[in-house]
């Protein structure tokens, strides 16, 4: 397949190549509870589960389960969480050849509280390993056999190095910023670094809160457009907006894809599943924007129907879900005047 990145610049995709992903690698302690914790309050825990997560890893698991080769670049600690993460990533079909280990280090892990209707809150223990991955530890020749580079921008030094190297090779760069930049540790990246990563992106995909912060505007639709105007990614910017669906803004148009009508049990990892489905559909299978939005939205919806942060379904299962559910994707106009939502 081929995709045009810019005027006069065409890249050709080889289906036998691989998606290289660099990003969060964590173990999630998932706590299913009566309600999300409140100050000085009490609640019941129904079930606890320790399972692998991390946005970057979740995206690649989605891609691998759908049927495409994928490999993760990250650093783990030399602990039980790190060993569990590696084993489960391998079991999910993602290559671990680029995983590094910090001797004596602690692996990043999270506490995910999940209440009724899939509502959740997350507490993060960053550990002392993930954020120490340094650019000099990653050889950009790992991109020589890559079809797509995915990065969540952290650690930023590595993201900048790989994104820059991918652009030099005409490899499309998909950037997902999972958390608002203000949440991330100052040791993870500076505003200058995240701006540089985004400047190399061919698609930027974030949630509403991230766009509001990137553009310092209250209305996420305006923030979405402002982000596009600032970075000009070749294929545009995408906002995953939960129950409001997804919006894809580019130079050509702005598309809105409604969310599938489901009863969610756990929304953890839905955005990651969306990104994995988008990369698989748009970049690896050359689907159009509307079809890619529908496919990625189906991946997110299916993830919400089960507990845990990862989507483990085949392409055939996603298409079967799509055949059984009605979804609309339409062009929309941006509002002309700014205002609060």
From TrEMBL:
Its EC number is 2.7.1.-. Keywords: Kinase, Transferase. GO terms for molecular function: kinase activity. Residues 27-311 form the Carbohydrate kinase PfkB domain. PROSITE patterns: PFKB_KINASES_2. InterPro entries: Carboh/pur_kinase_PfkB_CS (IPR002173), Ketohexokinase-related (IPR052562), PfkB_dom (IPR011611), Ribokinase-like (IPR029056). This is Putative sugar kinase YdjH. It comes from Pelotomaculum propionicicum.
